[in-house]
């Protein structure tokens, strides 16, 4: 029989399954972020116990990602009073509009809820700033005015 007509398996024709990419750099989280990661690991472990193929492979892949995030998590030191850092809730005025954002770890980020990851450009512009200061953003000098800042959990 010709090799052209021989079929080893369906697996050889499927797209390869790669691990979920992990962002480079430190995995800095807030205390809330660590609790969310821990809860996700517990949820996925239970799902893996109850799952059958083909979902099992997908769940195990996701569990490996979250186990890695859990073991590499570094809880950020709460920012000092008046200092903006990871774990700060910051009130800003940008483009004439007032906005409140929380600076959090990457896995905890949810821009729609006002939580931005510390590596986001807006967070980078704010970290290290002080109340009353104007900071540059997106190439525009002094485009953001910092109105208030509190450590999350303080308010």
UniProtKB/TrEMBL annotation:
Any Pfam family hit: GreA_GreB
Signal peptide residue numbers: none
Protein biosynthesis keyword on record: yes
GO biological process: DNA-templated transcription elongation; regulation of DNA-templated transcription elongation
UniProt keyword annotations, A-Z: Elongation factor, Protein biosynthesis
Ranges where the Transcription elongation factor GreA/GreB C-terminal domain occurs: 81-139
Gene Ontology molecular-function annotations: DNA binding; RNA polymerase binding; translation elongation factor activity
Domain of life assignment: Bacteria
Presence of the UniProt keyword Transferase in the record: no
InterPro entries: GreA/GreB_C_sf, Tscrpt_elong_fac_GreA/B_C, Tscrpt_elong_fac_GreA/B_fam
The protein's name: GreA/GreB family elongation factor
UniProt organism field: Sphingomonas alpina
Lineage of the organism: Bacteria, Pseudomonadati, Pseudomonadota, Alphaproteobacteria, Sphingomonadales
């Amino acid at each position: 029989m010709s090799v052209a007509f021989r079929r080893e398996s369906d697996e050889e024709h499927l797209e390869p399954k790669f691990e979920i990419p992990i962002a480079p750099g430190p995995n800095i989280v807030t205390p809330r972020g660590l609790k969310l990661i821990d809860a996700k690991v517990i949820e996925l472990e239970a799902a893996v116990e109850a799952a059958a193929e083909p979902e099992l492979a997908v769940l195990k892949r996701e569990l490996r990602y979250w186990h890695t995030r859990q073991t590499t998590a570094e809880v950020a030191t709460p920012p000092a009073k008046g200092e903006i850092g990871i774990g700060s809730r910051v009130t800003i005025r940008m483009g004439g509009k007032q906005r409140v954002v929380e600076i959090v770890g990457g896995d905890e980020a949810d821009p729609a809820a006002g939580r931005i990851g510390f590596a986001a450009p807006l967070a980078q512009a704010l970290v290290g700033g002080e109340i009353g200061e104007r900071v540059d953003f997106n190439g525009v000098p002094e485009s953001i005015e910092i109105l208030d800042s509190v450590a999350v959990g303080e308010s």
